[in-house]
Amino acid sequence: YKGYKIAAIDYGIKHNILRLLASHGCRIEVFPANSSINDILSFNPDGIFLSNGPGDPAAVSYGINVVKKLLKMDFPIFGICLGHQILSLALGAKTYKLKFGHRGCNHPVKNIFNNTVEITSQNHGFSIDINSLPSNIKVTHTSLNDQTIEGIECDDFQAFSVQYHPEASPGPHDSRYLFEKFIDLIKENKNKYAKTN
């Protein structure tokens, strides 16, 4: 099998995310939210996907602990929505409940790196506290409606995430490039390890 192996941790995953990852030739194994680190490692993944899902991210302590361990193993990690919040908590940030949650489509999000606006689909009630971000986390996307954090990446790990839903369908497809970014990270990682071994 030639495609990359992706372990998708299921906090409430959407079928379209799996479809988009599969469209890049990836083999995906879906793991329940409470899977142990050993369960995930037994699949020998090339990358880790942290899915969307409902509820308070701070309550998913088992997920946060597993992601902390995965970060130390230098896996490329991509998180969406609840997965974004769990990654942020694993990296040492804090979350808080929004007074007004973000629901529905057509939410404008600014991509800080290329200074463009993406029209996004959203469904969340919690956000990352910008004042709690460790110094190794960069904010990559912000909401133009209320300036909350909509995306991060980490300097010390191959990890990034977004708060919104790039897989939404029907809906804006402005953010589908994030799936390519994840595949590129996996490719670079495989090449790096191929050279060092």
Describe the structure.
The protein has a nine-stranded mixed β-sheet with strand order 2-1-3-4-9-8-7-5-6, sandwiched between helices. The chain has helices spanning 15-22, 37-41, 61-72, 82-90, 177-196; strands at 5-10, 27-32, 47-50, 77-80, 95-111, 116-128, 137-143, 149-154, 159-162. Helix content is 27%, strand content 34%. It is α/β, with parallel strands linked by helices. The two termini are 21 Å apart. The mean pLDDT is 91. The protein is built from five helices and nine strands, in the order E-H-E-H-E-H-E-H-E-E-E-E-E-H.
Short description:
The protein has 197 residues and is of the alpha/beta class. It has helices spanning 15-22, 37-41, 61-72, 82-90, 177-196, and strands at residues 5-10, 27-32, 47-50, 77-80, 95-111, 116-128, 137-143, 149-154, 159-162.
- Widest sheet: strand order? 2-1-3-4-9-8-7-5-6
Structural class by helix and strand composition: alpha/beta
How many strand units?
Answer: 9
Termini separation (Å)? Answer: 21 Å
Rounded radius of gyration (Å): 16 Å
Unreliable spans: none
Strand count, sense and barrel status of the largest sheet are: 9 strands, mixed
- Percentage of residues in strands: 25-35%
Q: Spell out the helices and strands N to C.
A: EHEHEHEHEEEEEH
What is the quaternary state of this protein? single chain
Q: Figure out the total of helices.
A: 5
Q: What is the approximate shape?
A: globular
What average pLDDT do the residues reach? 91
> What share of residues is helical?
25-40%
